[in-house]
Amino acid sequence: MKYRFIILSTLLLSGCQSIGDAQNTDIASEAPPVVAKKTTRSPDKATETPKKATPATPTVLSPQKQSDVWQRISMQLSLPVPDNASVRRYRNWYLKYPNHLATVAERATPFLHLIVEKVEARNMPLELALLPVVESSFDQFAYSHGRAAGLWQFVPATGRRFGLEQNWWYDGRRDVVQSTDAALDYLEYLHGMFDGNWLHAIAAYNSGEGRVARAIRRNKQRGQPTDFWHLDLPKETSSYVPKLIALGDVLRHQDQYGLEVPAIPNQPALTLVDPKMQMDLALAANYAGLSVSELQSLNPAYNHWATSPSGPTHLLLPNDNVERFNTELAKNDNQGLRVERYAVKSGDSLSEIAAEYNTTVKVLKRANQLHSSRIRVGQRLMIPVSLKDESQYTLSAPQRLAALQAAERDGHKRTHTVRQGDSFWTIARRYDVDYRQLAKWNGMSPRDTLSIGQKLVVWDKEGDARRIRTITYRIRQGDSLSSIAQRYNVSVAELVKWNQLRQNAYIQPGQKLTLHIDISRSSGS
């Protein structure tokens, strides 16, 4: 009886459940759809639907992690590239002469990473890291007719204005670290002056803030646009900005233009060390395991055989050579110079001694704790001297000048010795050459000061076409070397040289002199 009750109860419950399910189904079909809540319970693996794999997003390296520093720059260029004739012209030039950028890349290899890091640290446009390409083609010894020097082409006054020292020993305009800081200081100043307009600032870096400011003011007065592209500026400046923008464009789109600029490793190449003492460059190179020319090429600011006695004394060295330099310097008791003892002789002067040992009076005074230039016979002087002859410093200022003057050019080569009253203008007029060319042949600017006795190279384009004749002149009563020189349009120095005379030689009537004159210009008879 008990079992029959249980079975009956079970049948009744089953029927109720079936009715409930049917009712729930009808309600569900009439009600709005219900969004099922998410559950944290994992589905049965046997019934789980396999999901399609999502392709991985390629990792894009940041500019700082690129292997090539050119790519690091390209990824951060921000100045707009307008479609105008000037930009197209310079873009086509870079593409037509790819060897130019190959040469630039070779020169820039030690320095470009250093410059890029300094530009990035100031949050400035990366186009500015390319300015040395436009300014100097990354020639650290570049010198223009306008007296601009170094990678950033500072003229003397602007260099001093931004803290670049210039003296016999050292020219901060060629110091890669110091001149980069000064150039970025100047560009920041110009950016502020021109209300945040980088194109105006870059143009002003080339031609001066006053000129750009006047061009903007003129356009405002005429009701004309004042953006860079509408300013009336000198041809050089009007080309300067498009050249920089075109350069950035070809670097950014090398693949598109079919250009391949040699890569530069995106990592530091150099370390700045400072032994805090004047150092002979030959000795420093020996300590570092470099040749003198290698050391000079990394430290072009030093004009002669040593760092500056009054500072700076720092050196840029390849990273791999720094430890050796420091070890050898310590091993040699921090010796930076070789010193000789000199006994003063009758007739000696500090200036003559300084010239003989290729140093300066200031250095001699400092080395010997002298308060004046007075010296006495028998006095012993300590003289810092070079380990090598100056001529062996192939990248020093005197050697660079000698190489420039020795370069072959068109025409007939002459040597002119500067005398009292000479200037580039008077010398150029005498030889019928352009005074700016004359300065260029001698690694100078037309505004540079000439020294009496200085040797200048003159390339006379007429050369042998001139009617140069050798004559014998018999001295007359009342003649002097200066009057004869003036009469035949030659110099006293030439008369002395041609006739092996002493500078202040006494001449007598009847004496014969040999002269080499241009008869088309001589007024003599």
Automatic annotation (TrEMBL):
Pfam families: LysM, SLT. Residues 30-61 are annotated as: Disordered. Residues 340-383, 414-458, 471-515 form the LysM domain. SUPFAM superfamilies: LysM domain (SSF54106), Lysozyme-like (SSF53955). Residues 41-51 have a biased composition (Basic and acidic residues). Gene3D superfamilies: 1.10.530.10, LysM domain. It comes from the Bacteria. This is Lytic transglycosylase.
